[in-house]
Design a protein that fits this description.
The chain has 127 residues and is mostly beta strands. It has strands at 3-7, 10-13, 18-25, 33-39, 46-52, 58-60, 68-73, 78-83, 92-98, 116-117, 121-126. The chain is built from no helices and 11 strands.
């Protein structure tokens, strides 16, 4: 049973930074893809960033390129999202997700490609 536990959300002023973590258990370290998704009120869930857990290749939505960095620690089987230059429109519930796929490319930003989801962590950015 794959389990994902997020942490690190909170409230910050515009221009600030936050770092999210997602600890994965029940899956082989360095396998599959993991991604960060967010859901804001009145909007659809969108893919923010994803990473090939074996190769380390990363993928970003255009809205966060140059501001967010996704990374992983294979030894800890943990996913991270460093969020810099935060904007009010980044406010949302952030979820991490994982699957067992390979060679996904930018399809790794599609939520329906993921089987396992965390409980979410709230990020609020004030202006």
């Amino acid at each position: 049973q794959v389990k994902l536990v997020e942490s690190g959300g909170g409230s910050v002023q515009a221009g600030g930074s936050l770092r999210l973590s997602c600890a994965r258990s029940g899956a082989t370290a360095g396998s599959g893809y993991m991604g960060w998704f967010r859901l804001a009120p009145g909007k659809e869930r969108e893919g923010v960033a994803a990473i090939d857990m074996e190769k380390g290749t990363t993928y970003y939505d255009d809205s966060v390129k140059g501001r967010f960095v996704v990374s992983r620690d294979i030894a800890k089987n943990t996913l991270y999202l460093q969020m810099n230059s935060l904007k009010p429109e980044d406010s949302a519930m952030y979820y991490c997700a994982a699957n067992r796929e390979v060679n996904m490319g930018y399809a790794s930003l599609l939520d329906f490609r993921y089987l396992y989801w965390g409980q979410g962590t709230q990020v609020t950015v004030s202006s």
